[in-house]
Amino acid sequence: MLAEDKRQKVLSILEETYGHTTTALEFKTDFQLLVATIMSAQSTDEQVNKITKPLFTDHPDAAAIAALPLPDLEDKIKRVGLYRNKAKNIHATARILLERHNGEVPRTREALEKLPGVGRKTANVVMSVAFGIPAIAVDTHVFRVSNRIGLADAKTERKTEDQLMANIPREQWAMAHHWLIWHGRKVCKAQNPQCDICMLKDYCRFYRSK
Ligand code: SF4
């Protein structure tokens, strides 16, 4: 794990580079963010945006999605991976929101994680992006990049999340999640990290160990 002064330097470089950024998922409401995030598991944000654009135009809220017959919803999202399971979860979630939450997305982790298709990572994204509640969602990019750099030193996403929360000031949690994702997409790629052009290489544990 990096020493505190190096962690601070890494965070300030990430902030300088990626600034006030947010998710690449496109949405207009909390409900649409929830649906897009459920849909994004094991799919790229770009793929999801292509599907949600027409879906949200015709079916923008929980009532409209719940009113769709499940086979129709499956058909509308069939170009995303695992679409049958995702359609089932999104349909059930829309119904539960109508029945128990007046069609609104709940703000607590406990209520969010009771919705079908919503695990800790999705709940963290919705809490931080929709409601501004500090949380760090650890997806594949955040896990890989933070452990390479040395902001974390963990074998699981859950432990990585705990270590990031301990190592990053609370007010930076939400932004750090986005910075690490963008850095993972643009520079610290899974197969071929571009260390030679990386602005973090002087501090990165992975680079210094090579
Ligand atoms: S130096 Fe390499 S491994 Fe480290 S953050 Fe940059 S790209 Fe990733």
In a few lines, what is going on in this structure?
This protein has helices at 4-18, 30-39, 45-58, 62-67, 70-76, 83-100, 109-113, 120-131, 140-149, 157-167, 173-186, 205-209.
Word description of this protein:
- This protein is an all-alpha fold and 210 residues long.
- The chain has two domains: 93 residues, Endonuclease Iii, domain 2 (Orthogonal Bundle); 102 residues, Hypothetical protein, domain 2 (Endonuclease III, domain 1), CATH 1.10.340.
- The longest helix has 18 residues.
- The protein is elongated.
- The model has no long low-confidence stretch (mean pLDDT 97).
- Bound molecules: iron/sulfur cluster.
- The site of iron/sulfur cluster has 13 residues, from helix 9 and helix 12.
- The site of iron/sulfur cluster (SF4) has 13 residues, from helix 9 and helix 12.
Task: Produce the secondary structure layout.
Elements: H1 4-18, H2 30-39, H3 45-58, H4 62-67, H5 70-76, H6 83-100, H7 109-113, H8 120-131, H9 140-149, H10 157-167, H11 173-186, H12 205-209
The chain binds iron/sulfur cluster.
Iron/sulfur cluster (SF4) binds next to α9 and α12.
